[in-house]
Amino acid sequence: xxxPAKELGTHILLELNDCPQELLLEKETLExxxxxxxxxxxxxxxxxxxxxxxxxxLSGVVVIAESHIAVHTWPEHGYAAIDIFxxxxxxxxxxxxxxxxxxxxxxxxxxxxxxxxxxx
Length: 120
Hints:
Elements: E1 9-17, H1 21-25, H2 27-41, E2 45-52, E3 58-64, E4 67-74, E5 79-87, H3 90-104, E6 108-116
Helix pairs in contact: 2-3
């Protein structure tokens, strides 16, 4: 008898358009926004790592005990692509998404949620 797929995690692909410039350009501001979003959502922050590109743009990851939050910004387009991946309770991923959207105040947002896990 086949076993049903086992949900191990929640992966949210978040598209943020027309975000405030300082979040897309300033490493410390972006890092703080994502770390605070994780904290407020009840995730456990392990370590943030961010890189600022020249002339502009940022990439980073906030490692959380539940998995990670990754970001890439394109300030010239007012755009940020954010991946939220959490293991366990899917509500944490949803709370992180809400916190990020509140802090980034994008004019337009789209999100896709994917359930992750093996099927045996």
